[in-house]
Amino acid sequence: MHHPVSLLLCTVCLAFTVPLVFPPASGSLPALAQTTPEDRIAEADRLLELGNQQYRVSQWREALQSYQAALNIYRETNNRGGEANSLLGIGNINNLLGNYPQALEYYEQSLALTRELGDRAGEARTLGNIGLVNRLLGNYPQALEYYEQSLALFRELGDRAGETIMLNNIGIVNDLLGNYPQALEYYEQSLALKRELGDRAGEALTLNNIGIVNRLLGNYPQALEHYEQSLALTRELGDRATEAATLNNIGIVNDLLGNHPQALEYYEQSLALKRELGDRKLSELSTQIEGRSPCLIN
Fold first, then answer.
1. What does the pLDDT look like over 40-83, one tens digit per residue?
2. What do you get for the CA distance between the two ends of the chain, in Å?
3. Nearest CA to 245 among 188, 200, 198, 205?
4. How far, in Å, CA of 163 to CA of 19, rounded?
5. What is the rounded distance in angstroms from the CA atom of residue 49 to the CA atom of residue 43?
């Protein structure tokens, strides 16, 4: 039984520990004197954008305050679109803080509003985030249901970036359920799209996921091939955290093949990088698989 580390996030999840959540859409309107409803909405827009900026730099508590302040104004002014986006942002922060029941509550409110408004893109994002929370809670059938709804919407909208993320997420759930052939099928579709879009970081993650499934199936040469491709990409991108995870995964396969000196070499390289990065979970290094983080989209 393999135990992925959680988010993406996302989120969710290996060296890619923080789930990447679909953030709310926002504008960057300047703050104005709060004298009219329009001025109030402009202030809410500013707060929403501030929350997004704080979210991007991991200032979770500050982002939560900004989203909540924006939500209050949007509700006062009966701005349903802004309300939906603020609810999504609050859900994302609760998700990242591990407050999953609260995250689901806010996501469900946001989902109802996006459907009421006919906001298909917002609906697709929120469905994906609800799927992620269900995955993190171990509710895999529900996670698949939400991911598949999200995937259908992204395809309908022609949103290739959203599509590739959902394909990867569906692959992860099938992987967790032990449905390895299905997992590989979704990962391969996601990989093809990532390459088409030029998403090199996403490509490295999905190559890792494909390597993991091949390892679980006992296809060690294929696992090594995909891990080595991922390693080359992470080094090219300067992604040290993912590099450390991939080195560890290569060590695992060499261990399974009986190549213990090579395995030790890769483990030591991974350990050195982990120390350099200040990763304190070193005791888990030889057992945790790093590379499964779903993408909630940031």
1. 999 999 999 999 999 999 999 999 999 999 999 999 999 999 99
2. 30
3. 205
4. 17
5. 10
Per domain, the residue ranges of the chain are 37-284
- Confidence (pTM): 0.81
d(CA 95, CA 60) in angstroms, rounded, equals 11
For residue 149, what are the CA distances in angstroms to 121, 156, 206, 212, 226? 12, 11, 21, 26, 29
**What does the block give as tokens for 244?**
């450390």
DSSP 149-172: HHHHHHHHHT-HHHHHHHHHHHHH
Report the Cα 135 to chain-centroid distance in Å. 11
Architecture of domain 37-284: Alpha Horseshoe (1.25)
Predicted confidence (pLDDT) per residue in 146-158, tens digit: 999 999 999 999 9
The candidate with the shortest Cα–Cα distance to 276, out of 244, 238, 250, is 244
How many Å apart are CA 164 and CA 246, to the nearest integer?
A: 21
**Phi/psi of residue 20, nearest 5 degrees:** -95, 115
Contacts of 113 (CB under 8 A, 6+ apart): 80, 81, 83, 84, 87, 119
